[in-house]
Design a protein that fits this description.
With 264 residues, this protein is α/β, with parallel strands linked by helices. The chain contains 11 helices and 8 strands. Helix 9 crosses helix 11 (229-262). The longest helix is centred in the last third of the chain and has 34 residues, at 229-262.
């Protein structure tokens, strides 16, 4: 219990940046502790990911960019959906260095949602909230296709999905478990797979923080064994350093995406 509570303290202390489906809205709901709120707000992506969601996300951000930068992060609570749309959102998360969070209070992140989670430079998830299975083509994309065209599209989709996960350095055993399961089956990642194999950061960002911000993994592990204010303060300092260094690239990326989406 002490480890769980320590994780919650760290998660919300570290949030400093900016879900999409049937509902994309700002929310102060704490995804990790039911019935509680956070200081500030985060973007909540809740529901099935559908074609057009990425443009809906950009529309919300365009209405008030400062609110996006001041928000805590993205809370993912999606059962999955269109993999092509999820990859657009995933690339946005990567380009803006937006942290993502998955908790039982708001709901799990399954299927195509996993691509968004795995992309993030900073990510936190509670036990049994990350589910994976083989990606599939959204029915909307199959309406006018012949069986042969549908087969070709599905093959190309799976090829791109596997390549994308490998590029992210997602462990091979996790990728294999995903592609071994049909779209009607779900494999729930274990604590070890979430915390140790995937990690709270991708390898490249972890090394970046070690080199530029003095991240000490041993101190982080000590913190998660039991809450300690001094360790928390040090981890927050490291996180803020990473935010400062990534902000110029993140702002440039968002500016470009908003400009492209505004074109008729």
């Amino acid at each position: 219990m002490r480890k769980i509570l320590a994780g919650y303290y760290l998660i919300w202390a570290l949030l400093s940046c900016p879900v999409f489906g049937s509902e994309i809205t700002y929310s102060s709901v704490n995804p990790f502790v039911g019935g509680s709120s956070i200081e500030g707000e985060g973007l909540l992506l809740k529901g099935e990911i559908e074609p057009g969601d990425y443009q809906r996300l950009l529309k919300i951000i365009r209405a008030n960019p400062d609110r996006f930068w001041q928000s805590k992060g993205i809370v993912l609570a999606s059962p999955g959906g269109d993999i092509q749309e999820a990859l657009k959102i995933a690339r946005f998360v990567k380009g803006t260095y937006t942290p993502v969070f998955v908790g039982k209070a708001t709901g799990p992140c399954v299927s195509a949602c996993f691509f968004i989670y795995a992309t993030a430079a900073r990510r936190e998830a509670a036990t049994e909230t990350i589910g994976i299975h083989r990606p599939y083509v959204h029915p909307q994309h199959l309406n006018s296709l012949t069986p042969r065209q549908a087969e070709a599209l599905q093959k190309e989709l799976l090829k791109q999905a596997r390549s994308y996960l490998a590029e992210l350095l997602v462990p091979t055993n996790i990728i294999d478990k995903m592609f071994q399961r049909a779209s009607t089956e779900v494999y729930w990642l274990s604590d070890d797979e979430i915390e140790e194999q995937l990690g709270r950061r991708p390898p490249w960002y972890e090394q970046f923080l070690i080199a530029r911000c003095g991240l000490d993994k041993s101190l982080e592990k000590r913190y998660f064994k039991g809450y300690d204010q001094a360790l928390l303060d040090r981890l927050v300092e490291v996180n803020n350093c990473g935010n400062r260094l990534s902000l110029p690239e993140a702002q440039a990326f968002l500016k470009t995406e908003l400009k492209k989406s505004a074109k008729p």
